[in-house]
Write a structure and sequence with these properties.
Layout lengths: L3 E6 L10 E9 L2 E11 L4 E2 L4 E2 L6 H24 L6 H6 L10 H14 L3 H17 L13 H13 L4 H19 L20
Helix pairs in contact: 3-4, 4-6
């Protein structure tokens, strides 16, 4: 969902000079965040329908330029995040913080978890994750130079068909997909991939 960016006169707060602060308002996913522009305007000089200073507003052109620059800056950030496929919230857009698309190598992160299970004495979890990794490695013909962002619906379909062609039982296939999903979720902390069009759609349960 795209972010909605606007500048509003914050009537809930009146400054000592009788004016109200101008705030950048960002709405995204049903949430709103505000940030002060550092300037204020008397309500009588503000056009609430157009969200801009009235023609007779003192320093109106200067204020309008500040508004234009800030909104343009944020819109450019949103566009850059979209092009680079980076997720953001209304809050971290204002703070300049973003969440990058996950680029961890699948094999490397599997090994990290396997090592953790070994250190914790979780023999069963270690075995299941190693077996799943070996299955993925065989399916990929030893080419493990890919990341979580490369795992899309097409990849999942091919992986399941490959397992079926090797006469794997539905319970085994389901276990491997659940393990892969668990590893993915540990890495991304969400069941969906940040990258558009590359979502973990719980595919393993659609055909079992």
């Amino acid at each position: 969902m795209n972010a909605s960016i606007s500048v509003v006169l914050y009537r809930s707060k009146t400054l000592a000079n009788g004016e109200n602060p101008l705030m950048v308002q960002i709405s995204k996913n049903g949430r709103r965040k505000y940030q002060s522009l550092g300037v204020s305007v008397n309500q009588k000089f503000w056009d609430f329908k157009k969200n801009r200073p009235k023609p007779d507003c003192p320093n109106g052109e200067y204020i309008q330029q500040i508004i234009f620059n800030k909104v343009s800056e944020l819109q450019k950030q949103v566009l850059n995040f979209s092009v680079e496929e980076k997720e953001f919230t209304a809050g971290n857009l204002l703070k300049g913080k973003i969440q990058k698309v996950i680029e961890s190598k699948v094999e490397e992160f599997f090994y990290e978890l396997i090592k953790q299970f070994e250190n914790a004495g979780k023999v069963g979890s270690k075995r299941i994750h190693r077996e799943t990794l070996n299955s993925i490695r065989t399916f990929s013909r030893g080419n493990m130079n890919f990341t979580f962002s490369d795992i899309d619906l097409e990849w999942l379909v091919r992986y399941e068909k490959w397992q079926l062609s090797n006469n794997n039982k539905p319970t085994t296939i389901g276990l491997r997909f659940r393990t892969l999903r668990s590893v993915y979720n540990r890495r991304s902390n969400t069941i969906y991939q940040v990258k558009k069009g590359k979502r973990f759609l719980l595919y393993s349960f659609l055909m079992l």
